[in-house]
Amino acid sequence: MESAEKEEISVEDEAVDKSIFKDCSKIAFYRRQKQLLSKKSTYRALLDSVTTGKDSARFQIINEPAKVPLLAEVCGIEGNIFRLKINEEIPLKPRYEVPDVLTSKLTTVRLTSCPGDTGSLVLASGKGDLKCHITANPFKVDLVSEEEVVMSINSLGQLYFEQLQISPKQRATKKNEEDASIDTTQENQEELGLWEEKFENFVDVKVNGPASIGLDFSLHGFEHLYGIPQHAESHQLKNTSDGDAYRLYNLDVYGYKIHDKMGIYGSVPYLLAHKLGRTLGIFWLNASETLVEIKTEPAVKYTLTQMGPVAAKQKVGSRTDVHWMSESGIIDVFLLTGPTPSDVFKQYSYLTGTQAMPPLFSLGYHQCRWNYEDEQDVKAVDAGFDEHNIPYDVMWLDIEHTEGKRYFTWDKKRFPNPKRMQDLLRNKKRKLVVISDPHIKVDPNYSVYAKAKEQGFFVRNHEGGDFEGVCWPGLSSYLDFTNPKVREWYSSLFAFSVYQGSTDILYIWNDMNEPSVFKGPEQTMQKNAIHHGNWEHRELHNIYGFYQQMATTEGLIQRSKGKERPFVLTRSFFAGSQKYGAVWTGDNTAEWSYLKISIPMLLTLSVTGISFCGADVGGFIGDPEAELLVRWYQAGAYQPFFRGHATMNTKRREPWLFGEEHTRLIREAIRERYTLLPYWYSLFYSAHVASQPVMRPLWVEFPNELETFSVEDEYMLGSALLVHPVTEPKATVVDVFLPGSSEIWYDSKTFAHWKGACTIKIPVTLDAIPVFQRGGSVVPVKTTIGRSTGFMTDSPYGLRVALSTKGSAMGEFYLDDGHSFQYLHQKQFLHRKFSFSSGVLTNSCADERGHYPSKCVVEQILVLGLKKQPSSVTAHSADGSTQPVAFKYHATTSTLNLERLSLNIGADWKVHIQ
Ligand code: NOJ
């Protein structure tokens, strides 16, 4: 045991040198595509071969010199989506097609072929306003919407498809020695890395040889692109220069560099393009290492003098070219045709699922540290929150809570009685989250290891043995979550009877699941490790973490016999991870620049389906000064997943350790979060059922306002609140852009108001969080804050009604039991609509299917922007009874306060203001 303990790894081992990660020039398939693509496209579609069936149209594409046919398949999918698949017609062996990401319900729509010019084929979907125009020679696809070409595929001739070949060795045994030696020398060119690729001291031996694919997309009239997380980069995608593509390859990068396109923990190979009047999406379903190049050609106007009178009338529109390249797999790409941002969100979630509805507690504040030392420490920190009157919901335990980093166990000295500790938290209506990583300590006496070993549940190395690599526990093997049997077994480990010391308030954190392998190539697994079905790790690297979270989530659902909603946080993710829980941005640093970049990083996750996302508050690495910590809490309170976390060897930083004034400021920020919980929960419901992101870049809410397209220092929460966190030290003023010329915005503290389409200078002190409510909205809040969300179930509500320039407002409210699936199976929920017009505020039902009795009342209503003092205010119930309402009108701020109301939140009523 002692020697095993010594094998363990310290945090310094993880603090890696950036040079251990590849840049494009070190990636062989990138070099190959660059070298071999310099020539004009040689692909030609054989349109005589086209067959149109119920679900798709298929035809061959031929590469002229090689004459090896590819098979293309075009499908129309319900909701204005096209799918284009290209594979070898008869591959030497099957190529990997990503399973388990698409929701099973995809319905295809029949494509009708319309007459085109000779050498072309036109496929129309639905009513015919969307068409795929396929040109035979050279092969090109134009996506046409209402006679406008919005996207062209392969118009730059970058279709690239490496056909699987038999290896030079096998060929050598077939052919005579002389032939073979010629082939081998040709193919073993190190530069091309066909069968072998070197990086540092690692050699990647490729049994299948080169298998990479690539394709270009030209987006006509588009200059603004977003998506393809995860990068510590701006929200709007930047132009890539040679050798600086966005890399999608899940890696454990401790203290990642910001404004960098290197791959970090997760990948969603999906981007959105937006221009006035249209939003599009491209979802490239491939789980191998992927690179994306972006090149925008701005619009050019030719002037009279330059081009002469005829050309003067021409205006060459802007265009952005996107070049996708993947190491392996097939081309399987979905074109999401919008036309609005909201339509694209729905189309993407139709393919990959919507955000899981989180349990209410998980929207509260989470307190984490690597590590809370022992049960006493947990007890003291928990008590600290109560002493300082700071609400919080979840205590977290990192890897040190286990017996030598053996997940599903407890360190007997530090946590001798985990159930007692959970009882303490349960009594305060709080929860516990513990970590469970995918690496399993090699130790025959550790039952998880022994059982997985016995059943062959680990990823294998290319020699056929279990893959072994080093991670926190020392030598470890890695569960093969791509195997459904492994997932089923792993899920069963969360059963209360199996996971000793676990109770129903314990939830899970999946970390290191890129997977992280210390001392491995780029700190991860060798690409030639072998998974279930004999697939190489290279085929599915980016989806490994997705599968772990999937299995964990399933485990938490099963342990409650399908009754309770799970909560699982993951570091690594892929397209569709939103179905399984929350994601955070990994090992950031306690510096202002990292606070600032958390906003675009989270916006990018949000528009690619992952609404439940957050960044470590305070910064994981290093010691934030008090001012930075306060600003981070203020920003985090308005970000979806709100957790304070810090690495080992940092100074303790519980909210009360920085003096009374800073404690007060942090308390205020956290309390603002709890005040807005009804709004947060309603937004998550809308993400869950209607695919709309919780945190929204301004362009999503104001798609027709060009000035919003590159804004990333502020954002909308739902459609009602604009948040502009302070991310500069010693700030005394911030410039806030208020969009929309027909909008009116209200400062949520002072109630001062401004007309939209302007930038205002807001003076700030350390207690200011610039938040603005949009005129025309109603925001539900809690008027009393409890120690945790559990204490607030019955507490009263308030409504913040901000009037539009026309004197009206609308808002929604969602409520259920906050933890079970009854909202889904029994329709036990309340979905209400608040509308204000002509001086009447109405509470009515937004969804008749839902029923959920609540005793809660609305006790306060605040109306912003009421121009004149009312003479009377009365409340009218559905049974016809009328009550006078006491009110206070403040002429200086044009606000009306209604207090001591007692209007049931779930009942129909009206308040008349005359
Ligand atoms: C890396 C994670 O990113 C970090 O949050 C965690 O504290 C450490 N691993 C230790 O588990």
UniProtKB/TrEMBL annotation:
Any Pfam family: Glyco_hydro_31_3rd
Alphabetical list of CDD domains matching this protein: GH31_GANC_GANAB_alpha, GH31_N
GO terms, molecular function: alpha-1,4-glucosidase activity; carbohydrate binding
Keywords carried by this UniProt record: Glycosidase, Hydrolase
Start and end residues of each Glycosyl hydrolase family 31 C-terminal domain: 692-779
Domain Glycoside hydrolase family 31 TIM barrel, first and last residues per copy: 356-683
Keyword Hydrolase belongs to the record: yes
InterPro entries attached to this UniProt entry: Gal_mutarotase_sf_dom, GH, Glyco_hydro_31_AS, Glyco_hydro_31_C, Glyco_hydro_31_N_dom, Glyco_hydro_31_TIM, Glyco_hydro_b
Biological process annotations from GO: carbohydrate metabolic process; N-glycan processing
Ranges where the Glycoside hydrolase family 31 N-terminal domain occurs: 74-292
Gene3D superfamilies with a match to the protein in the record: Glycosidases, glycosyl hydrolase (family 31), Golgi alpha-mannosidase II
Keyword Cell division: no
Family to which the UniProt record says this protein belongs: Belongs to the glycosyl hydrolase 31 family.
PANTHER family for this protein: ALPHA-GLUCOSIDASE, NEUTRAL ALPHA-GLUCOSIDASE C
Name this protein carries in UniProt: Glucosidase alpha, neutral C
Organism this protein belongs to: Moschus moschiferus
Gene that encodes the chain: GANC
